[in-house]
Amino acid sequence: MTAPRAIGLLILGWLILTVTVLVLEATGRTTLASDALAFAERHRLLPLVLVGLACLIAMPFMPRVTLSLSVILLFGPDAAPLVWLAMIAGVTLAFLIGRHVPYRLTSRAFAAIGIADRAAAVAPGSGLDEAARLRLLLGDHRWTRALVRWRYVAAALLPVLPGNMLLGGAGGLAMLTGLTRAFHPIPYALAVAIPLAPLPLAIWAFGLDIIPGAR
179 to each of 18, 67, 110, 194, 199, how far by Cα in Å? Predict the structure, then answer.
């Protein structure tokens, strides 16, 4: 099996898992998740829960804040810094999945939505640098020039903007960011770590009392 096909199958499996989780959530079968969390708390399986949290956050349309707060409420404020790291890992994982989507799938998707001429912006080995890829993808306008200049700031803020669930949530937006191939993984991970920090670190510093109804 070739590497592109293996990556494609991995992405397909990831999407099937995402749809399954969304269906379970939509049909109100939340006792599955709560039972799993309760079992993990009883057996002190925090590391396993953190891995699961990161994987869920990497999926499109997953409620990042709700999932993260659930883990913090279950394991206490001392777990908040670890939850923060899990959030960074989840968003970065989604970014890496998007970055490694095979180009033939990306080009077909671009053609399907009528922007086939911009597929060259995300072609591997095109010789374009990060800024040039984004300029080719977005076009040359005044606002896009500013966006390209501050692209890491914009990409870091996308996962925490209110209402981002309508656009795919933190995981979906991170995948789209990776798909552009206009960002390097390490600076991206460091950039998203900053806006993801305030809530978990505030809970770690001041306790659960800062969350309304937590007690």
Answer: 18, 25, 11, 22, 28
pLDDT digits (tens, 9 = 90+) for 48-102: 888 889 998 998 888 888 889 988 988 888 889 999 999 999 999 999 998 888 7
pTM score of the predicted model: 0.76
Backbone phi and psi for residue 124, each to the nearest 5 degrees, phi listed first: -65, 145
Q: DSSP readout, the chain? A: --HHHHHHHHHHHHHHHHHHHHHHHHTT-THHHHHHHHHHHHTT-HHHHHHHHHHHHTSTT--HHHHHHHHHHHH-GGGHHHHHHHHHHHHHHHHHHHHTS-HHHHHHHHHHTT-GGGGGGG-TTS---HHHHHHHHH-S-HHHHHHHHTHHHHHHHGGGSTTGGGGTHHHHHHHHHHHTT-S-HHHHHHHHHHHHSHHHHHHHHH-GGGSTT--
Q: Is residue 51 classed exposed, middle or buried when 0-12, 13-18 and 19+ CB atoms within 10 A define those classes?
A: middle
* Tokens linked to 35: 């039972």
Collect all residues with Cβ–Cβ distance below 8 Å to 64 and sequence separation of at least 6.
57, 87, 90, 159, 169, 170, 171
